[in-house]
């Protein structure tokens, strides 16, 4: 299982940051 996670981890991190940024933008719009 660990081998499966090591390779995609590099690809997952940018995806996580993209989603986090998207959520932050939505939260800012919702707050106003």
The count of β-strands is 0
> What's the total helix number?
1
Q: What can be said about the biggest beta sheet?
A: none
Radius of gyration: 14 Å
Overall description:
- With 32 residues, the protein is mainly α.
- It has one domain.
- Helices cover 94% and strands 0% of the residues.
- It contains 1 helix and no strands.
- It is rod-shaped and about 45 Å long.
Which SSEs are present, and which pair or pack?
Elements: H1 2-31
Q: In brief, what are we looking at here?
A:
The chain is mostly helical.
Entry keywords:
mainly alpha, 32 residues
């Amino acid at each position: 299982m660990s081998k499966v996670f090591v390779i995609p981890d590099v690809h997952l991190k940018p995806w996580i940051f993209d989603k986090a940024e998207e959520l932050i933008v939505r939260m800012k719009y919702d707050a106003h």
